[in-house]
Amino acid sequence: MSMFWTIWISVISLGTIVGCYFLLRWTLANKTGVDEGDEMGHEFDGIVELNNQLPRWWTILFWITLVWGIGYLFAYPSLGGYKGLLGWESSNQGVLSLEESEAELRKDINDGAWNEYALEVKQAEDLFDPIFEEYAKVPVEELTKNDEAVQVGKRLFLQNCAQCHGSDARGQRGGFPNLTDNDWLYGGSGAKIKETLINGRNGLMPGWLDAFGEQGVSEVVAYVLSLSGRDVDTSLANAGKSRFAACAACHGMDGKGNQALGAPNLTDNIWLYGGTERAVTETLNYGRNGVMPAFKDTLGEDKIHVVATYVYSLSN
């Protein structure tokens, strides 16, 4: 925080307390020239004003709030850049990356620093980590029988995965797979789903426009669409079949893909980037680069185990 804002906040905060102090002193002083309890000479509708001070209990409360306010300002970081005598922080300030934030968080937890976020994280870890450790001892396929574990995995999925795959896990066009249809790029076993979540995936398909030319791409598109039973120009498809040998290195000669490489099955009419002729042509022309981030550092392996359980349950 800049010096200007530090001064601005300090002046307003301290000025308000000082102003309240003098206002209270002024109201407690009898400057009317009339003894306390006597009439002030004002009367309206039979009501006479008397010279009475504030009630004593009310005055005491005012003094307490003023003392409390001063103590709070100096104990906590309330005056701009001032850190406070107690060293309390709501969270780590000034971190510039996720790695730096995690490092500072772990340091505060280990040091027992009075950092509100670190205290909350430690409390949550002490409470929930033993539960996740117990879940992690059970294989994913077996853990799907535990409804509570599946619901925990669902909540973690909604917090971390639904942004791309949707709250219903049915994915969306643009490279975000449907997780409910048993069509898997890298394999749908519990172990493979965990591997995907832990390490992430980076699927790269090169563009073929320079190699095939526009006519060649049209021929391969026709052949690829024919693999899933689509009506196409037979002459184009026949010509594309010979060119498809270049694609078979990843997708296989039968076009059914290769889960070891993350190469999709081209025969099931399921398309990550759209299955229209135009969309498939765009894919062949320019290629695709699908990236799924790794969640090992974000969630940890025990929580990933529970998320994998929920994902596995969707299609099994």
TrEMBL record:
Q: Where are the transmembrane segments?
A: 7-24, 57-76
Entries under Gene3D superfamilies matching the protein: 6.10.280.130, Cytochrome c-like domain
| The record's free-text note on cofactor binding | Binds 2 heme C groups per subunit.
Q: Which SUPFAM superfamilies match?
A: Cytochrome c
Cellular compartment(s): Cell inner membrane
Question: InterPro entries from the entry?
Answer: CcoP_N (IPR032858), CcoP_N_sf (IPR038414), Cyt_c-like_dom (IPR009056), Cyt_c-like_dom_sf (IPR036909), Cyt_C_IC (IPR008168), Cyt_c_oxidase_cbb3_su3 (IPR004678), Cytochrome_c_Oxidase_Subunit (IPR050597)
Q: Which PROSITE patterns match?
A: CYTC
Organism superkingdom: Bacteria
The main location class comes to membrane
In which pathway is this protein known to take part? Answer: Energy metabolism; oxidative phosphorylation
Keywords, A to Z? Cell inner membrane, Cell membrane, Electron transport, Heme, Hydrogen ion transport, Ion transport, Iron, Membrane, Metal-binding, Oxidoreductase, Repeat, Respiratory chain, Transmembrane, Transmembrane helix, Transport
The Swiss-Prot or TrEMBL record lists the needed cofactor(s) as:
heme c
Give every Cytochrome c domain span. 148-228, 235-315
Q: How does this chain assemble?
A: Component of the cbb3-type cytochrome c oxidase.
Can you tell me which family this protein belongs to? Answer: Belongs to the CcoP / FixP family.
Q: What does this protein do?
A: C-type cytochrome. Part of the cbb3-type cytochrome c oxidase complex.
**PANTHER family reported in the protein's UniProt record:** CBB3-TYPE CYTOCHROME C OXIDASE SUBUNIT FIXP
Protein name, entry field = Cbb3-type cytochrome c oxidase subunit
Q: Which organism is it from?
A: Agaribacter flavus
